Amino acid sequence: MALSSKSIPDDDLNVQLRAAKSQLVLYAKDLNELLVREQQKSKKLEATNKQMQAYAQDLNAAYQTERQKTSELEKAYMDTVVRLTLASRYKDEETGTHIQRLSHYSKSLGLYIGLSEDEAQLIFDAAPMHDVGKVSIPDMIMQKRGPLDEQEWDIIKQHPVFGANLLAGSPSQLLETAREIALTHHERWDGTGYPQGLKGDGIPLGGRVVMLVDTYDALRSRRPYKPAFSHAKVCDIMLNGDDRTRPTHFDPQMLDAFREIHEQFDVIFSEIAEEGMAAPTID
Ligand SMILES: [Fe+2]
Ligand SMILES: [Fe+2]
Fold first, then answer.
1. pLDDT for res 31
2. How far apart are CA 86 and CA 173, in angstroms?
3. What's the 82 CA to ligand 1 centre distance in angstroms?
4. Are 93 and 224 in contact, with CB atoms under 8 Å apart?
5. Long-range CB contacts for residues 242-247, cutoff 8 Å, separation at least 24
6. Is-contact 179 167, C-beta < 8 A?
7. How far is ligand 1, taken at its centre, from the CA of residue 48, in Å?
8. Ligand approaching nearest to the C-alpha of 185
9. 134 catalytic, yes or no?
10. 53-98 confidence digits (pLDDT tens)
11. Any idea what DSSP says for residue 282?
């Protein structure tokens, strides 16, 4: 009689098959658990991702608010600048157009010597405050007709310090630059300036720029003690010197730059002219 596979159970085989089956069931269970865990993880990741996006949006909104506040603050500082400058003009023969021209010369010179647009703009905005310290000088000295005595000159020479004190202690980069310029715009490269007698690179760059452009504009303008000079005469005085002004007063790098771009100064002077005044000039 022939043997059939059904009729002869293979006990060992059955045992192995059962074992394999239960192993497979266990694997399937493990896999299922793994799948559930992965799904949970991916849900958590998705939630975290959403949360992060919400944080990013919040941060962006906060950043925009801060930016707006900063620009409002900068506007407030600029407002302070305008008011301080106005106050100093009441005391001084220097005019609004002088101040505007100073900003433009400073920016041209700054850009030519390699300052960035932002750095040059900072000097443009800060330069108008160079003489705010004059508000602290008594009227009887500021408006005196006739020559000042030595004691009166000593008081006038304090206006950079008065100005720096007025502008000190602000977190604004603009006012800090203005403070530095106010304090050092009468210092000279060769050390013969005031109030500290600083020399060379010891004078902050903004002070060196404003000193040169202020000299140019003062020479081109009429003052109680001098007539207005022509552009050519002012260039000659600055580059070759006269009895008051020496080329050694200026940062040589800036004087070289002036030599190259002096025509821009003449254009600025003509375009931002004194109101209703075509001043006669001396050649
Ligand atoms: Fe000054
Ligand atoms: Fe000035």
1. 85
2. 21
3. 17
4. yes
5. 245/215, 245/219, 246/190
6. yes
7. 61
8. 1
9. yes
10. 888 888 888 888 888 887 888 788 778 777 877 777 766 666 678 8
11. E
- What global pTM score does this model have? 0.74
Judged by DSSP in three states, 184 sits in helix
Hey, how many other C-beta atoms are within 10 angstroms of the C-beta on 86? Answer: 14
User: How long is the chain?
Assistant: 283
H or E segment at 229? strand 228-229
How far is it, in rounded angstroms, from Cα 94 to Cα 128? 11
The vertex-222 CA angle with 241 and 267, nearest 5°, equals: 75
Helix-strand-coil split of the chain, %, nearest 5: 70, 0, 30
Tokens coding 10: 């293979």
pLDDT for the residue numbered 7: 57
Torsion from C-alpha of 224, 230, 232, 237, nearest 10 degrees: 0
Contact call for residues 142 and 92 (beta carbons, < 8 A) = yes
Let me know: does 132 contact 235? Beta carbons within 8 Å.
no
| Ligand number, closest to the Cα atom of 95 | 2
